[in-house]
Amino acid sequence: MDLMEKITALAKRRGFIFQSSEIYGGYQGFWDYGPVGVELKKNIKNEWWKTMVYGREDVVGVDASIIMNPIVWEKSGHLKAFTDPLVECKICHKRFREDQKDIHEHNNWTESKTFNLMTEVLLGTIEPKEKSYLRGEITQGVFVNFKNVVDSTRVKIPFGIAQIGKAFRNEVTPGNFTFRSKEFEQMELEYFVKPNEKESKKTFEDFKEIRINWYKNLGMNPKKLHFKDHEPEKRAHYAKYATDIEYEAPFGWSEMEGIHHRGDYDLSNHNLKYKDNLNNEEYTPWVIETSGGVDRATLFFLIDAFTEGVDGRVVLKLNPKIAPYKVAVFPLLANKPELVERARSVYSLLSTVYSCAWDDRGNIGKRYFAQDEIGTPWCVTVDFDSLKDDSVTVRDRDTGKQERITVVKLQSYFEDKFQ
Ligand code: ATP
């Protein structure tokens, strides 16, 4: 089995990711997150929000609707830009207008098709129904709310608007597990700055560092991360600078997040300006965007954390901050009510602060095995000694070391771990 097969098998076996509509044979390009997958994905989004919104006084969030007035897509250029005859490289899945094929290094193309990546939906009850679209990127939801945010909050340039949400693309070749899906989630910051070459370039460079460090600080192997600048001829025509953060996946270096200098392209498209009341100036701000894929980050964190011993034993070394469960609590024996009762009280104590797993099946070895596979950093076992000395055994996922800790100290013990 190659690594991607192992990851896909683990994802299904332990409840990270399932095929959508699996009982009906699945549905190409769509995926469901299971009980542990939803926790992992939620933790990734929360960590992103903590860094990009709560950690900054110059950023606020929005949650715009998925379906917007179709005029938005006309103005943004999506309806036009996505209906050109396109071909897609079968090797790296980059799409090109047919007349731009020769700028690409590979030469293995899908048939040329006039396709629109926007997913159409029909609304209304009377025929003909109104054609609308599921958003192809979450970005436009931020731009169309630019004025609302400026008018309703105290933000002043430079400031950012953050958003996390679903986007939909009618991808020609979905694949590599969740890497390229038709429905996916994005986490984005649109940061508005004065139209100034030097300052905006600096902001662009700063965000490159902020974003790559975010992945590193959450434990991603720095050797598997790099920037890949877009060559001028491959860049969107409006982008002044653009770079991708790529991860070295088993299927090659792959885009995980884009950092783009979008100039005044979007706000101009929507005819939006900013009024600086202090200096009585009016101008169209420039935008620096960080646009990450939640599903790609989730997949790459999974791949990065996957370790396998010589005996085939899998340990998912996820950073505790994003691990689905922080602590698992076990009674040594499930058929001893006094152990179960004591373990339940430990579970109640810890679960007010951390997402905890409870397991009383099989023997301790099997439970460790199961928790290692879902990346639970610590397992707490309540045994007969616990009833006498009020201590429990805490076992560390990565070192396998076990420590006796008194229950009263348990909360501060874990607090220290998260420092
Ligand atoms: P690609 O070249 O891989 O199609 P893109 O350059 O079109 O990606 P952007 O439009 O910059 O992607 O979107 C920002 C982010 O959204 C990407 O870096 C990626 O993480 C995520 N993303 C885009 N398309 C998909 C998809 N089909 N499935 C999953 N995630 C996606």
Automatic annotation (TrEMBL):
Pfam families linked: HGTP_anticodon, tRNA-synt_2b
One Gene Ontology cellular component: cytoplasm
Keywords: Aminoacyl-tRNA synthetase, ATP-binding, Ligase, Nucleotide-binding, Protein biosynthesis
Occurrences of domain Aminoacyl-transfer RNA synthetases class-II family profile (ranges): 2-320
Gene Ontology biological process terms, A to Z: glycyl-tRNA aminoacylation
GO molecular function, one term: glycine-tRNA ligase activity
InterPro entries: aa-tRNA-synt_IIb, aa-tRNA-synth_II, aa-tRNA-synth_II/BPL/LPL, Anticodon-bd, Anticodon-bd_dom_sf, Gly-tRNA_synthase/POLG2, GlyRS-like_core
Protein name as it appears in the record: Glycine-tRNA ligase
